[in-house]
Specification:
Number of helices of chain B: 5
Oligomer: heterodimer
Distance between the termini of chain B: 32 Å
Distance between the termini of chain A: 10 Å
Largest sheet of chain A: 7 strands, mixed
Order of helices and strands of chain B: HHEEHEEEEEEHH
Largest interface: A-B, 47 and 33 residues
Radius of gyration of chain A: 20 Å
Strand order of the largest sheet of chain B: 1-2-8-7-6-5-4-3
Structural class of chain B: alpha+beta
Strand content of chain B: 25-35%
Radius of gyration of chain B: 21 Å
Helix content of chain A: 25-40%
Largest sheet of chain B: 8 strands, antiparallel
């Protein structure tokens, strides 16, 4: 089959590889009909994530048709159309019982690596480094799905692939980011980063009762999308000083909740950006927590900072004084996707949201390298790339 | 969990430190230069460690030494403790483990166990370099539902003794399986520290064994990626990284 293989920084290639096989009784093989490049794939593309090996198959946002099932899978049958959540979860451990699926204790065969880096291991993830299990991903023609009796959700006929594909990751991720803010009616929420996750976080904040959402980015097309699709106000951080502007916009108090939908490769145009670039280049920190710092400094007293952006290692100059003295709450985590798929599918069916609005580019799988480059460099106003194998 | 001893260098390390420390100091004092002063300083530090028996760099790696082990044929052992919580009763877990023929299903590198009687068994091991090894093992304590202790005999790969305890987890949340293992490290604490940093120490095999036991009991399979496709002409999926796969 054809698959997207990682070869190193800024080097992904479509290659012929062997077809996947059922390896365990609870596996399924899915023929991928649509897959996408995630913002977090760019951290792999930019070489920010350790424990990648040449030839690793990428991709954790995908859907398709069930081709083959293991002997213990009873809830799916061959031919079912499914969306697969990016975290791999067993459905039976302490954390799965608590619906904290991305913390599944049983799905990471390389848990010892994650324990070295992070103390304890989260779940395994498709196509996202050996640290998180080394599972082959779904930017391919076929993919093996472990615990197929737990993760995949069946999609009713009548819904297009593009309407439901993002149930695999970014729609639940944006939703969880907003849910973590414990929004009260009338709240003001500020969202750093208006990529696809930021867009869904903005939409979800409004769905959960926010009165105002302030979108922060530097790309005009992304800010325009936030305004056009959801009615968000916008701030371009290349034009204004964000902390000051947020104070002005919120009567001096600050937003009730702040969402970091950026993560470890944040940019800044000022001295702060240079500081973090130098420190990461010298390997004195691994992550550039620029958005997180701003969110912590800007949030109102007693408010919540919700972190959906991905961080990998260590970061510097986090304003803990602001966090402690101003009674802030931080909530974060890899998304517990399984928990949100059904309710969000219902919202899609009822017309509350049509997630396909974020798609700007549709490519064949053969052009995946172009897709990565365009998405990374925001060429041609690229916001979301969907691939068809 | 036993008290952390303030000594984590074995006698062989201390002897090595003494020799190297004296050599460095001797070389460093012969003439004056920055390099020689540095060498003398390092030598002094090694001598100080040889005197105290404590290397602060080993502490974060969890290197613990038992200087008076009860059972090993050598006179010092490296000590490790690992535990996992499993959704099952301690009696179930005890019964599963007590049938030693189950071990190859979850213990990495144990390919086969022959059980001769209640006490004696022979373990077939795939050693690091791809060679096969064999050791014999005898049960030294058996408290049904609570503890099994054993020691190895005729063992040239990993001379060790240990125990596994089965305890109720608090709050009715299953059971805790706790392994205590002591092994002889021919290369001393330093060798154990290097192996641990490389992720190839016995500690790693115990962690993986416990995790796979949990998977077998909770979900009925051992998770793996061995045999999945990959590019770059890699043949066996992620062999080499997932080195404990079988």
């Amino acid at each position: 089959m054809k698959a997207t293989c990682w070869y190193g920084k800024h080097d992904v290639r479509v290659e012929q590889v062997p077809d996947p096989k059922i390896l365990n009784e609870r596996d399924a093989i899915v023929r991928v009909t649509a897959t996408a490049i995630c913002g977090s794939d760019l951290h792999l593309y930019d070489g920010f994530v350790p424990t990648m090996m040449k030839g690793d198959i990428l991709g954790h946002e995908f859907m398709g048709e069930v081709m083959e099932i293991g002997s213990a899978v009873r809830n799916l049958k061959v031919g079912d159309r499914v969306v697969v959540p990016f975290p791999i979860a067993c459905g039976a451990c302490f954390f799965c019982d608590k619906e904290l699926y991305s913390l599944c204790e049983n799905s990471n065969p390389n848990a010892w690596m994650a324990e070295k880096m992070w103390g304890h291991s989260p779940c395994g993830i498709f196509g996202y480094s050996h640290l998180l299990g080394g599972y082959a991903g779904g930017q391919a023609e076929y993919v093996r799905v472990p615990f197929a009796d737990v993760g995949p959700i069946r999609i009713p006929a009548g819904l297009q692939d593009e309407q439901v594909l993002f149930l695999s990751d970014i729609l639940p991720t944006g939703y969880m980011a907003a849910e973590q803010c414990s929004i009260d009616n009338g709240d003001t929420v500020a969202v750093w980063g208006c990529g696809p996750v930021g867009q869904f976080a903005i939409a979800s904040a409004f769905m959960l009762g926010a009165e105002r959402v302030i979108a922060i980015d530097r790309f005009p097309e992304r800010l325009r999308m936030a305004a056009r699709e959801h009615g968000a106000e916008s701030l371009n951080y290349e034009e204004v000083e964000i902390a000051e502007a947020l104070k002005d916009l919120t009567g001096g108090r600050g937003p009730d909740a702040c969402i970091d939908a950026v993560g470890m490769e944040a940019h800044a145009h000022d001295g702060v950006g240079a500081y973090d670039r130098i420190k990461t280049a010298m390997m004195l920190e691994t992550d550039r927590p620029i958005a997180l710092r701003e969110a912590l400094m800007s949030c109102r007293n007693g408010g919540t900072v919700s972190v959906a952006g991905v961080y990998g290692g260590l970061a510097d100059k986090i304003p803990l004084g602001a966090l402690m003295n101003r009674s802030l709450t931080i909530r974060t985590g890899q998304t517990h996707v399984h928990r949100y798929m059904r309710p969000l599918l219902e919202r899609i069916e009822s017309g509350d949201i049509d997630p396909s609005f974020v798609i700007t580019h549709r490519l064949s799988l053969d052009r995946v390298a172009d897709g990565y480059r365009m998405f990374r460099d925001k060429q041609d106003e690229c916001i979301k790339v969907v691939l068809r194998p | 969990m036993q008290r952390r001893e303030k000594i984590n260098l074995m006698r062989i390390d201390r002897l090595g430190y003494l020799v190297c420390g004296l050599a460095l100091v001797g070389w460093g004092m012969r003439r004056r230069s920055i390099a020689r002063s540095g060498a003398a300083g390092l030598g002094g530090w090694l001598l100080y460690q040889a005197y105290t028996g404590y290397n602060p760099m080993f502490t974060p790696l969890g290197i613990r030494v038992n200087r008076e082990p009860g059972e090993a044929t050598a006179n010092e052992t490296i000590v490790l403790d690992q535990a996992i919580t499993i959704n099952a009763t301690r009696e179930e877990l005890y019964r599963f483990w007590r049938n030693l023929e189950n071990l190859p299903n979850f213990a990495p590198r144990v390919s086969r166990v022959e059980v001769f009687d209640e006490i004696h068994s022979r373990w077939h091991i795939e050693a690091m370099n791809g060679r096969a090894a064999v050791w014999e093992s005898e049960v030294t304590r058996d408290d049904p539902g609570r503890e099994i202790a054993w020691r190895s005999t005729h063992n040239e790969v990993l001379n060790h003794f240990g125990s596994v305890q089965f305890r109720d987890a608090p709050g009715g949340r299953g059971a805790v399986v706790a392994v205590h293992l002591e092994y002889v490290s021919p290369a001393g604490s330093l060798g154990a520290a290097v192996a641990r940093m490389a992720g190839q120490a016995p500690e790693r095999y115990v962690t993986d064994a416990l995790r796979r036991l949990k998977q077998l009991v909770e979900i009925g399979e051992v998770v793996t990626t061995y045999g999945q496709p990959a590019g770059a002409n890699r043949t066996e999926g992620v062999a080499g990284v997932d080195s404990s796969a079988h």
